[in-house]
Each structure stands twice: as structure tokens, then as C-alpha cells.
Design goal:
Elements: H1 2-50, H2 73-82, H3 85-101, H4 111-133, H5 137-149, H6 155-178, H7 186-203, E1 212-215, E2 225-228, H8 233-248, H9 262-287
Antiparallel strand pairs: 1-2
Helix pairs in contact: 1-2, 2-4, 3-4, 3-6, 4-6, 5-6, 6-7, 7-8, 7-9, 8-9
Length: 292
């Protein structure tokens, strides 16, 4: 009997010790979470430095800028993903100023020298647009909170960044790419909807009409950019996508699989995707007070 009681007491003590350890572990959990978040932030910052903005300005990435800077986009996407929000707006602030203020210090430049001078600035502009256009939404929202809502040091640069983002999505990824020709697949429609929704998000910001961009440092004045964002552009894009999707895109039964019945299933899945995307587009058009 004494042995049994002793054993029970020992078990109770061990259980109590385990509970104490669990409580202490729980108390230290917030600190551990903070340490983990700090390490993740440090990792993100380090990766952002590896994928530096200056690396995007290497000559090979600037050979083909029009209509779509394909060589720039993969590296811009990595930079925008890993660079801290403060660095992203600092990059916009610094390089917009460089475009506007750096001059061609030659007494009588040749046409080729003028062309090369302007092309280098176009390269910077394309890189800025690609970076701004590929920033993840959560990171973009953080920039808006830190710089615009909180009247941060780079509030005007943040407004420039938003205009650069719109120009990338509207002019490059939509007008010069997805909407420049017939839509062939449901994936084209879904990607167009994704880009348009990012523009729609910007168009619905309360300060949307303050978004602007001024790039006036080119020798050829026709290359200058002086744009103030017009929120109605979002509706126009939705309507353009609607036209492309209803007139040009037809979901068809295709013989792509050798498995009996699978072609029909794929057709049904693609039709469902098409209907979902088109419903989303129609809802967005209605949200602007217009019947689709």
C-alpha cells in the first residue's frame, strides 16, 4: 500500500513538473514567434539584396523592352518578392529622380548618342514598372499603410509606384500581351482577370485620383510620361476583357487525352472555369454601376 501511494505521489510530481514546463513553454511562445518572424524578415532582406534593382539594369536585360520586356520580368518578380517594402519605395524614389535629373553632358550629341541616352532611361522605366507590377498584394497593402496612410517619408514615391504598377499591368501585360490578340484558352481569360483585378483594387482606393507619375528627363520629349490615374480605366479594362471572352474565346471539346471519357470531363471543367471567370467580370462591371 505504501509503495502504491509513493508511486502515485511520484507520478503526481512528474505530472506537475510537466505542467510547469508546458506553462513556461507557453509563456515563452510569443518571444519565440517574434524571433522566428525576425529571422524570416532578415532572410527576406538578404534575398532582396541578392536580387538587387541594379542587377535589372544590366545591358542584356535592356535589349528588348518593347512591347514586353521579357528578359526583365523574371528578375523583377524575384526582386519585388524579396525586397523589403521600404527598399521598394526607396528604389522608386531614387530612380525616378535619376530619370528626371540626369542629363546628357555632351555639347553636340549625335542622334545615336541621344538614342542610347534615352534607351537607358527607358530601360530604368521598364524595370521600375516590372518591379511595381509584380509586388505581391499583401506587400503592396503594407506600402500603402506605411507610406500613404501614415504620411511616410516616401508617400509621393508610393503614389508613383502605384502608377508604375498600373502602367505595367495595363500597358504591358494586358494591352501589349493578353488583349493584343485573340484569347485562345481559358487560362488567358483567368490571367487577364487577375491583372484587371489588381488595377480595380487601385481604382477603388480613396486617394486613387492622387496617383500619378512624371518622367520628364528624356531628350526626346515624346518619351516623357505625365500621367494622373483615372479610376474609370478599371471599367474599360473589364469591358474589354468581356468583349474578348464572349466574342473571341470559345470553349471546345478537344481530343487531348487517350483515356475514355476524360476529354468530356476536361471540357466540362474548362467550361466551368470559363463561366466562373466571366461571372466575375460581369460582377465587376456591375460594381461600377454599368450593366454588362
Amino acid at each position: 500500500m505504501k509503495t502504491t501511494i509513493s508511486l502515485m505521489c511520484t507520478l503526481l510530481l512528474l505530472t506537475a513538473c510537466g505542467a510547469d514546463e508546458a506553462i513556461e513553454a507557453t509563456k515563452s511562445m510569443p518571444e519565440r514567434m517574434d524571433q522566428m518572424k525576425q529571422k524570416m524578415d532578415e532572410t527576406e532582406t538578404a534575398l532582396g539584396r541578392v536580387f538587387s534593382f541594379e542587377a535589372l539594369l544590366k545591358e542584356p536585360y535592356g535589349k528588348n523592352l518593347i512591347p514586353v520586356p521579357f528578359d526583365l520580368i523574371p528578375f523583377a518578380t524575384e526582386f519585388s518578392k524579396y525586397a523589403p517594402t521600404k527598399e521598394l519605395v526607396e528604389v522608386v524614389y531614387l530612380w525616378v529622380r535619376k530619370i528626371n535629373e540626369v542629363t546628357l553632358d555632351l555639347p553636340s550629341p549625335t542622334p545615336d548618342e541621344v538614342f542610347q541616352f534615352d534607351w537607358r532611361k527607358m530601360h530604368v522605366q521598364a524595370a521600375l514598372q516590372a518591379v511595381a507590377g509584380t509586388i505581391p498584394r499583401t506587400k503592396l497593402e503594407k506600402i500603402i499603410r506605411e507610406q500613404i496612410f501614415a504620411s511616410g517619408r516616401y508617400s509621393d514615391a508610393a503614389l508613383n509606384l502605384l502608377m508604375l504598377r498600373v502602367r505595367y499591368l495595363r500597358d504591358v501585360m494586358l494591352d501589349a500581351s493578353l488583349l493584343s490578340e485573340k484569347m485562345n484558352d481559358v487560362g488567358d481569360l483567368e490571367k487577364a482577370v487577375e491583372y484587371a483585378d489588381e488595377i480595380d483594387y487601385i481604382a477603388r482606393l480613396r486617394f486613387a485620383r492622387q496617383i500619378h507619375l512624371d518622367l520628364t528627363g528624356f531628350k526626346n520629349n515624346d518619351l516623357d510620361v505625365m500621367e494622373v490615374f483615372e479610376p474609370s480605366v478599371a471599367l474599360k479594362i473589364w469591358q474589354k476583357i468581356k468583349f474578348k471572352a464572349t466574342v473571341n474565346l470559345k470553349v471546345e471539346l478537344k481530343d487531348v487525352s487517350g483515356v475514355p471519357g476524360e476529354n468530356e470531363l476536361l471540357y466540362q471543367e474548362n467550361q466551368a472555369r470559363y463561366n466562373k471567370a466571366l461571372t466575375f467580370v460581369n460582377d465587376k462591371i456591375r460594381a461600377w454601376g454599368v450593366q454588362p
